Amino acid sequence: MKIKWLSFSVIMFALILFLFACSSDETTTGDNTNNDSDLNEEQNSEDGITLRVMDWADSTKYLREEFHEKFMEKYPEVTNIEYTTLTQQQFTDTILNAIRTGDAPDVFMAPLSFSLPVLVEEGWFQPLDPLVEEGFFEIFREGLFKEGLNIVDGEIYTIPQQIAQPTTMVFYNKDLFKEAGLDPEQPPQTYEEFRDYARQITEAGNGDFYGLIEGGKQSNRFIYTVQQWGSLNGAGLADNSPVSKLTGEAPYHTEAITDIYDLFAGLADDGSIHPRTSSLTAPEARQIFANGEAGFIIQGAWNIGVWNANSPDLNYGVMAPPTPTGERKGSIDTVAQVGFGIYSETEHPELAAKYLEELYGGDFYQRKVVENQHNYSPVDGAIEEYASGEFLEFYELYNDILVGGPIPEAVNLDVTTVLGEYVDVTPSAAEIMQGVAISGLRDYEPMLEDLSKQTDQALEDAISAAQEDGANVSIDDFVFPDWDPMENYNQ
Amino acid sequence: MSNTETTLNKQSALNSKKKNKKNIAFWCWMFVLPNMILFILFQLWPIVSSWFYAMSNWNGLSSSIEFIGLANFKELVQDKYFWNAFKNVFIYSFGSVPFQLILGLLFAVILNNPKLKFASVYRTFIFLPVITSAAIIGIIMSFIWSSDGAVNYLLMQIGLLDTPIDFLGSMTWAMPTVIMVSIWMSTGINMIFWLAGLQGIPKELYEAAYMDGAGHIRTFFSITLPLLVPIGAVILLFNVAFSLRAFDLIKTLTDGGPFFATDVVSTYIYSAAFAGEIGQPRMGYGSAAGVFFGFTIVFLMLFIQYLRNKVKANSHV
Description:
The structure holds 2 protein chains of 2 kinds. Chain A is an alpha/beta fold. Chain A contains 19 helices and 14 strands. In chain A, the strands form 4 sheets. In chain A, strands 1, 2, 3, 4, 7 and 13 form a 6-stranded mixed sheet that branches. Chain A is globular. By secondary structure, chain B is mostly helical. Chain B has one domain (75-316): Orthogonal Bundle (MetI-like fold), CATH 1.10.3720.10. Chain B has helices spanning 3-54, 71-77, 80-111, 119-131, 134-144, 150-157, 174-199, 203-211, 216-244, 248-253, 265-274, 283-316, and strands at 56-57, 66-67. In chain B, strands 1-2 form a two-stranded antiparallel sheet. In chain B, a hairpin with an 8-residue loop joins strand 1 and strand 2. Chain B is flat, with a radius of gyration of 26 Å. The mean pLDDT of chain B is 88. Classes of the chains: A alpha/beta, B mainly alpha. The interface between A and B is large, with 54 and 44 residues.
């Protein structure tokens, strides 16, 4: 019996000792932190500083690497820049884990659909104003920084990588149009025409090329199509609100949205969707489009530079998304991405700020991303000075159909509390669309009705929870009856 | 020697034996201790933490954790997509485990033949997928099984198909495809387990059986199989446990799709705990799903263990 107690005591003692060794009191922590910091500085002075940067800008990776070389030449104390670029979904997963473990990169983009005030409250980013040179923010386009998107409580936390733009314009292969007997200068305008064009291209391809290709493995590609094409049909959807900004209700069961699902179901039934779509990410689909295996691809401007550089023989055009009748009832309502911020726990805040200053204010990167047709720079005058060809054409085309809609957080900051409480509904519009486009799901109408009901309920629950937490918010904060969706909203 | 002396000697021998026993026990505990500490820190502690998180409304990022009792569990049992994942993981398990066991045994019996040339080479080939990362296998297999991949090409070349099948994009074919890849991936490790069992069967039994005129099939069913049953139960236990925890292969191969056709509990938990469109990730809800499913696995394992003991008891009789 004694030996059991002895063994037990030894184990407990060792365990307690081990646990105490892992933790420490406040003073010790402080000392340790200082020691660690000293150690890091010592290591950094000997080995140089490593800056870590993460985003999902895969198409500009080569330019960024060139920029990093130049940056390290200018700031020799930085001897290494660990640059990681992932797909959007991979990025979101990775950054969430990195934040949880306290090991996030020094500079990183805010994941899409995450509200900046929530991220700031959770301690992801630090304000940029105290870190950057005075006057730095004056180089950007007027109205770029918006409360709730880049600004929280009057302080700028993030800088968009590019200005607001649609991510679901339609690129088409002019050579395949010709092979199918279609006029490349007359792209389709209605859903019916779009489906018909895709079918004719598929028939002409006889298994070698198809009507449409998408990065079907990434469900986020489908949510953009539903939101942006739906908004052109008057759905009032945008990525910063779960419900229509025109009605305050989820519109997934309305014609503005169901028409899009009908279109994709029709495309799939015709066999016009490239059979590899289900297993492709967006960059892979982009490459297959460039190989001449599809007539259409729904994508954004960042593809233009990649195709022009890597696939000079690709003869392509760009068109606005089709609508059911050829007439639009609304506009694509999107804002610039939240963009790059500096990690609140970074050991090198000043150098991280220098990185951003050079990235936006230097004479290399912004010029090159526009010249090489990748991004619409948020720096004032850069697009007008350096854009050309299809890139400029795309810019002019989308300016006609894009507006800056209302931003609920900007009107009432307590909306962020609601978004923090909001629970996504399953299956989402993207998951249903993925099922329709690539997996033969046809019973989607009841699902969309259910999605609308559940979304309304989820928002109601989130509002109630936020009110219980003391937020002064209601469903009215998500509705903007005075907004004409064909025009910018006067915030 | 007097009686007293004899008693004292006996007493002293007994004491020394006791002391020796205590020493052994002490050192046993000391050797177990490092592992036990690591187990407590990295397994027991997270398990206990997840029980706590399961009863909270927490997004995994915020410092404030709201205690909500059993609300997550209530929501979980009402979610048909959780039950879909729950059903799928058992389909995956029941679809893959029997084949992994049977094929593993088949290869083990064939490769256990000392007269077979290049047995070690074959063993290496069959074992190769085991040492390859499941994530890599998932990515490579997504090419092989795609509509213009090697499998479709082969089936069309031999005339079994007229048009390619989108194995991973079809709601009908996705799960069988994942199961087939899983069988291919895990047969090797089962073969090794079975080989270990086969090599423990005394050769004399076979020699006696052959002398009595028994053939290969008779010896397999009358000697090999009955003597492998105890280790078979352990292999079954491992396989069921591993298959119910399947994540990496499915995540990389289909990501739970198409339209939830291969969504298993692990991918369901991952989606809840990490993903978010407009809403935040839900670590608390994901933990609740993990805890709920964890208990299911424990009950299932206890049941298998019970069966194993029963078989063991019968074999002793």
